[in-house]
Write a structure and sequence with these properties.
By secondary structure, the protein is α+β, with helices and mostly antiparallel strands. It has eleven helices and 27 strands.
Length: 651
Amino acid sequence: MFKLEAPLAVQSVTLPGFFPTNKFSAIPGLIRAARLAAAQADGIGPSADARKRLMIVPNCHVQEFITETQVDNWVRVIGVRVWQNGTSVDIPLAPPRNNGQSAVVIALGTVETTRVAITTFKQSLAGRAAQRMGTNLLAHLRSNLTIRVPRAAIAANLPPTVIPSLQTSALLVKGKASNGRTFHFQITASGLQKLGADSEAELFKKIPTLEHLQDMLRATDDTVVITIRGIGDMTPRNPDSFIDLSTLELDFERPKAVVHLGNAKASPQDFPGSAQTQNDRTTWGEMDVVSDKIALIFAGNEPFDILAGANLTIPVPVGSRPQRLAALAAFKNRRDDLGTTHHDASTMRMGDNVADAVTNDFGRIHDTTNCYIAGPALFPTIGSPNPMLTGVALARRAGDLLNSSVLVGPDPITSPQSEAGFRPLFDGTAATFKNWRLAGPAGGGMLHVNGEMVSYGEGALRLFFYATELFGDFTLRAQFRIFDVANHNSGIFLRFPRPTLDLSDALKPRTANEFFFDPGNPAWKPVIAGFEVQIDDNARGDSSKDFYGIRPEPDGKFKNRTGAIYKIQAGDRVWHLGFNEPAMQNYVPGPPLVPGVWFEYEITVQGDDYTVFLTNLQSGQRTQTTSFHNTDTDRGRALAVSASNRIQAAQ
């Protein structure tokens, strides 16, 4: 039974002075997630903000969503209109692509969620979901009975071994009214032995919750203060209870929300209300009767006090059970005002019947393609337990759906397909992305965005390398695309030692890159010890390189071009001296890179032989750009274990 009710309530054991572990607030989690996203963005300012997966925007209030009605009469959200610094600002959503689309989730609490939804959809969904938005408002019926009983009344029913350790305690008791509505009681108690030398006892050990601070301060060492809080389930579909928009007041240039609750606390003469409101009065009355009976269980046959207010104590002397129940029943000022529990819910109720609900069972507003609700506003009924855990469970469920089936994912062309002999080093998921590591200075790196690795940063060399396994001979397939014709210098490094290892003395520095080698940057080590398959259609020359005594090295050399083994002589003409360099690699230019178009490298390394193919995945054009036999005894060394590895990767 406990497992079946897990989303609704939890049981926990908490040491005195500690808050129970099932108390939840979204704010610490949101702050932690925002800090993590800020750290991952690696910097500050507009460029870093654009890299954040999550950002909290201050002083920004949602007025409504911008929508468009599609040919099938469904509605899609295409932007968010916010009020910021005294003016409206429209923020567009990214358009649909790759069989996915952007989505918006309204998670502002029941009242504000309802206001934004009605403001947004009152016209586009008129006669449909909009006519039910705001109806079925539910909260909790709540009463508080606090009593102070002699310690002897508690001790009489406890084993002697428990009495010395009695400090704080909590209990949950369920109940049901004759009309079928449910309620439950949260019972908390605090008491101590004589204080003795324990100077912290009064401050830390007599207060189970902050809500009960003032009552618990009235406990003595010979008494126990017990609070019996009753929480009842309101009747759904009450026409007296709803949220609509104000016709008089504005908030951020949009109508405020106006809340109406069927007032079961008022007398039938003052507020007769609907049948549902009358039903709530019955539930509330029967719940209070049960709380009085619980109080007598704790008091036993001892006299006790009702703590009726900050300066009001009502004594209940020893007497017959009916007399003592009558004294308890006479205490009427125990009911909280409706709406003070912060458990308002149900105005955006979910349901499979499009004609009877606002959202489906994942929280998507009916007849919209991409607008979701999160929180207790979804509940068709509220029950009596705290709605937090159920709301969190539904939010996680909707999040899983968005991530798997709704939001834009990786381009299909970049999703590796299973093929005999190959396995993915990166398949677009976080599980494989975490196997890669960054070497190089801060201010740049690689992000995991929409199932892709996206590089960012400038001004320094950085390396993103596969860190969980080493390879000898292999075939590597790596897909990539550029976004800037003028500036896209990158490459794929092969056969290099882990960047955390020191280079051998034979490699310091004596290669063609010795003029640029930075021993303090580990990303340079693969440049010296391995080989790079270049990505740069501009074939930029080294601006400060000593090229046969001439500075700078000219652009356009084959050995610096896409598809070449970088800096390995490719028969280029030396423009100043008028002769061709010797060719150590056989190079042919491949299909030119096109911004936004995916290309694929197929690189085979067998022993000392390197072969590179470049394919335009859009046109299908495929070229063998180079073949190269390595004669260097220090660079590009294979593993001692000569197991053949075939690798497939999307990058």
